[in-house]
Structures are given as structure tokens and as C-alpha cells.
Amino acid sequence: MKTHTAFLALAGALALTACGDAADETATDPNTDMTANDTAGADAMTPPAGQAAMPGSPQEFVDMAAASDMFEIESARLAQEMGSSQAVKDFAAMMIEDHTTSTANLKAAAAEAQPALTVAPELTAEQQTQLDQLRQAGDRFDALYKQQQVAAHEKALAMLEGYADEDGPAPLTTFASETATVVEGHLEHARELTVD
Questions:
Q1: What is the DSSP letter of 139?
Q2: For the chain, which domains are there?
Q3: pTM (two decimals)
Q4: What sequence ranges are listed for the domain DUF4142 (predicted)?
Q5: Are 85 and 142 in contact (CB under 8 A)?
Q6: How far apart are CA 96 and CA 72, in angstroms?
């Protein structure tokens, strides 16, 4: 119930922040970017702009979880290639390993659900934009990667914890509960990353 109430508060805050996204996109300060503006001053209780709503069906949950894993893997590959600090590269290696495992676990859970569900990862428009921002970040790559990782893991954790409390197929709610623990650890690690 506590998680469900927190999610409702999160969703309400999202609706309000989504209206201001267009103004953030016009920022011209070269030392900032749209994502930085959207999440500046945010704490763990404030969702990043563009926060996804809770899935309305088991298939939507599978789609959202698969997209989250795919984003983590793709952004981590960029971090290993473009990151400056060893801490970022090490974190990225952990993201590839853990989110590859998560995808395998999601596929198994989706296959066990009745009826069975399809796992076909596809990035959202927001996730694709974030990958494009990373590719163009230059010297700011590590800082932007950290910022995106914190926001992405906050989103994923809220989704997983929310779905774990839903009355969905048992294999999926179990997956959500178990994966939430891993994602929570990733979030703590991302917040502690030291970047220049």
C-alpha cells in the first residue's frame, strides 16, 4: 500500500512536469542539457520528466521492462566506449551483465505467464533521445551518463515495485519483486559514482 501511494504521488508529479518539457528543450546554456534541466535539484521522491506511467497490462509491463533493460545495455556499451573514468566503465560492465541477466529472467517469466507473453525489446522515443545525447556529450559524457542512470533506475524501481504489488501473473510479479532489489542496488551505486 505504501508503494502504491508513493506511485500515485509520483504519477501526479509526472503529469505536472510533463507540461514543462517543451520549455526545457529550448535551453541554450552550453553547460547544461535538456536532461540536466529536467532533473536539476531532483531528489529520490521527484520523478524525472517523462516518467512512464505504470503498465496497464502484463504485456505493457513486459514491454516496459524489456525497453528498460535494452536502454541500460545500450547506454552501458556507449559508456565503455566513450566514458573517461574507470568507475563509469566498471559500472557500465555491471549494467551489461545484470541487465542481460534481467532480460533472460524476463523472457522466462513471460513464457511462464498464462497466456504466455512476448518479449520484444524496443526503445522508447525518450530512451533513444537519451542515447543520442550521450553520443554527443563529448567531455561531459561521464556526468550525463551518471545523471541518466540515476533517473532511469529511479523510474525502473518505481515501475518494478509498483508492479510487484499488482495482481498480475505470478511469474511476472515475482520477476518484478526480485529485479527491484537488483535495481535498487544499481540506483545506490549510480548515485555514488564519482565523475569529473
A1: G
A2: 56-192 (1.20.1260.10)
A3: 0.73
A4: 58-193
A5: yes
A6: 7
